[in-house]
Amino acid sequence: MAEQHQANICRHLKRAAEETPDALAVAVQKRLLTGRFRYQELNFAELDAESDRIARVLAEYGITRGMKVVLMVTPSLDFFALTFALFKAGVIPILVDPGMGIKNLRQCFAEAEPDAFIGIPKAHIARCLFGWGKASVRRLLTVGGSELFAKAFGGTSLKALLKADANSQSSHANNETPITHNMALLGSDEMAAILFTSGSTGTPKGVVYTHAMFEAQINVLKNDYGIVPGERDLATFPLFSLFGPALGMASIVPDMDASKPITANPDNLFAAIEQYQCSNMFVNPALIERLGQAGAASTEAKAHTLPSIRRVISAGAPATISSIARFSKMLKDGVEVLNSYGATESLPLAMIGSEQLLNTTDITDSGGGICVGKPVDGVDVAIIAITEDPITEWDEALRLPVGTIGEIVVKGPMVSHSYYHRASATEQAKIIDSADGPAEHSVRHRMGDLGYLDQHGQLWMCGRKAHRVEANRAGSIFDDEPYFSIPCERIFNTHPKVRRTALVGVEIRGETAPLLCVELEKGVELEKSESAVEHFYDELRAIGEKHRQTAGIADFLIHPDFPVDIRHNAKIFREKLAVWAQDSISE
Prior knowledge:
33% helix, 26 strands, AMP-dep_synth/lig_dom, single chain, Peptide synthase, 14-stranded mixed β-sheet, OlefBLtnSynShew, GMP Synthetase, Chain A, domain 3, ATP-dep_AMP-bd_enzyme
């Protein structure tokens, strides 16, 4: 295989270790019982050397190139060193979101068939209790805890391996092992990692990542987002935090549960930003909401500000306009929240700054969808007709005209080619683009999202394909057009008593009909009379009748608290609401 087709993202770490060895690479915050903070740090030279060392001891322990390894270690210095060690050695880390639930985690590990399991003591206890990877795991490694604990659970500890290595190195001072210097170079199509989707919009699936995909993501962060060496990033999501050292940027990890950002203590994050004068932040909608509220409610004479921040990147789900506006008050003039669109299978794809996004409010509130911006460099976005059928071969004739809603299909160097051990899911989501021949970018990914491109090349999101409601619009000129979740919901969300809504389909007299579940704003209570509730519904119907997207929506139900995903607190579980709504109208 030609050398130019080989890659390993750890080359960026090695370059940083050579060019700026003493510069900060990682800092991890710990809040003490006294309320004060302690920080553990590694510079680039230390991170490079430690990951080299771990790669060597893993190989000696029998964890070698091509093996698949579950990595369940909380954000820490060990997490960074271990992850880079696995990449250096050509070992394939399996990364999952602990918040996806016990049942989904077990399924993920069964599908991935890991050869080894590296985790903190809590992860090993769960592994034993729930049988994670029982059929395939042959090597067990504990990070943290005692060696006695590690042996009790059938393996050894990272600490013990490193101690033995130190003793060996001191006994053979001139002995150097090849793995320390010979970083594995993987082919462009060779598997580098398996990242499981969260499962918040369906069954979790293992996305096959290559180093070429990681390289493409790094290039976007450099070229489209403008990240430069020497910056410091408040890293609130473990996977993104790994890009920091690869970009020559320090990752500052606050003391928080990364799987449940909504529970984060804002004071911890504010303190970390101030301590290291962070220039970049990666936050999801839940954190934008939480930090914005905390900043506005500051007990100081004026609201909290973040003067060192030059860039905020938000991803995972669309943040609300109101939460972005409130959060932005903490930033200096001209600093924007850069909202990224993408998915585990392909990220980032498009970007829009908060200033431009705020100018699209009227269109969004009128049912025009959410603008997610223009595609980043190297990404082609196409809209195709809505269908559940697989599409094996790409044809330009599939591309719909500007302004037409359909399924979003993307192509680019960061787009994954397959799911791991999910042939049917791969067939459903991937389209071969033979016009490019056998090149590495010859696969298009069907996002499962609906949207359209406007005349300026901007992409507008209209919700998940699975969340559209196919219902008969009798007597309307829009008979054949489905109801789309985001356009419909954003129209009704303009009612002052409404916090958010969710469109679902229900069966009424044997026919599918649209129904809107409504969650009221906090503190809003309707009179507990049938007439008061019906009056509220009449107000909603009046709003709906003004827009073609919502014409025909006449049924509503108030729900006390929508079920949402843990990580983003924004992805509504409409499938659960649909069952609840059907049961409610059937009573």
